[in-house]
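Z., the sequence and structure:
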Amino acid sequence: MGAMERALSPFIQADLGRKMVFLSGPRQAGKTTLARSLAATWSNAQVLNWDVIDDSRIILGQSWSPKARLLVFDELHKMKDWKVWLKGVYDGRLEAQAILVTGSARLDAFRQSGESLAGRYLAWRLHPITVKEWVESSDATPEAALARILERGGFPEPFLAESPVDADRWRQLYLEGVIREDILEFSRIGEVRAMRLFVNILRTRVGSPLSLASLARDLQIAPTTLGRYLEILEALHIVFTIRPFHRNIARALLKEPKVYFFDTGLVKGDDGAIFENACATMLLRHAHFLQDSAGRAMSLRYVRDKEGREIDFALCEDDEPIGFAECKLSDPTIPPYLAAIADRFPSAEATLLVRYLRQPEQRGRISVERAANWLASLSA
């Protein structure tokens, strides 16, 4: 299969007319491909990649063509003091010259501390392919789209590959490359082995609350070190964590996070764990899209009470739940705890997402939905 049109294209295109645009996301989620396809629609665009020696010379010398209507700086965050440099370029640019900056890890970390570039940019996060995106860019049904994501993961290359074997080969190289190149930028070489071990353990723990303290004992590593490893894996967009929802936010941070992989294909577990991970990636993308497109304060959480009863996902806006979702492969029975939570938060939607479901139905406050159709109805 060839490249596909990504759903964010028209949004980024529109924003380029207003401000500088930052596009961040996991390595190989398709940022460069998307940037090049956008550049192709401009009458005069120049794409400069910091990793290419000739391009970095042009970047440092600021010797790109003054006629370029669109400048794309790819992997710019690898340049020393890139923020200060970019501010100068943006403020001194020619009238009507648009700028698109793409990158993976630190670009996103930088969003939180946008000091020198405040007010000059709009930001978008590119995620793996979702059910909605594949349904809209192909003639696939939601069911076929979900099946493909569960088999291949949502990263464009394995997702679009001719065969599952090609997808597996890509994944092997992807994980090795990320561990070898990206993680080394954040940690010492001696830690790479421990980090590799940690990643492999996380692959088997998807969807369960993670006790870093007990894991640290097993690995004979200090809990603070393990916490730092988790932060690095998050900064590199290998995993994302979701925290428990709690009225009192301070308590929520103490409770154990659940860890999911951006690449569903990395999950080592049963069909239930793979399905839950896929749902998590799509709900995260939905939350990020509402944040990036409309400035809404969205977060993805889970719910767990003192008795250990749990609901997989709580979508929150301004720290108030607006939707709950529980994932099941084939059992359409309403979990009592989901019903109880739905009653406690009457303004939030409550959904039981069933992968294999004969008939959708509404039972009290809970809607029982075919997972594929529901996922296809998300915002992104």
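The first strand starts at residue 20 and ends at 24. DSSP finds 16 helices and 13 strands in the chain.

Let me know what you think.
H.
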